[in-house]
What we know:
With 182 residues, the protein is α/β, with parallel strands linked by helices. Mean pLDDT is 85; it is low at 175-182. Helices cover 37% and strands 15% of the residues.
Amino acid sequence: MLARTWVPVLHALMVGFAFALFYYPVYGLAGLHRHHAYLQTGWRDLRAQVQAIEDEVLAETGRRPAVVGLDKHNTADEMAYYDPRGDGARDTASRHLFYDEDALMYEFWFPPQAFDGRDLILVARSRGDLEDARVAGRATRLGPVRTLEPRKHGAPAGRYYARVVYGYRAPERAAAGTGQAR
C-alpha cells in the first residue's frame, strides 16, 4: 500500500505547502484578508493627511508638534518613515507617552519627559484610543477627534483617527533608583 500511495501523498503535500507558504501569505483566503490590512493601508496618503494637521498646529501655535502612533507595532514607525520632511524619526513617539504599556523601543529612545510641554498629534486605528481618559489626563487642552481615510492607488484603504494634544504633561519620574517613568 505504501508503494502505491507515496506519489499521491507527495503531490498532496507539495500542493499543501505551496498554498501555506506562497498563496495564502500573498492572496489570503477568499473573503478573509485581515492579515493584509497593514499592506493595504495607504501610509503615504495617511501621513500626508497628518502633515496637513501638523501644518495647521504650527500655524496656530508657532510650534511644530510631534506625531504619536497609539498602537504597539507600526503606526509610529510608518508616520516617521513617510514624513514628507524626512525628519520624522526625531519627532515621532508611541503609546508609552500615555499608557503604561510596551511600545517596542520607543520607550527607550524617547522618554515621556522629552515631550513635556509639546503639542502632539495622536494617530490611532480606534477612536476610543483618542477618547481615553489617560489621554485627557496628560493634556492641557484637546483638539477634536478627526477621521482620516487614507487611499492607496485611488481606492479607500482603511480608517484612522487623529487628535491634537496641546501642552502634553509627562508623568512624574519614578522614585530614585528605578529609572523608569510611571
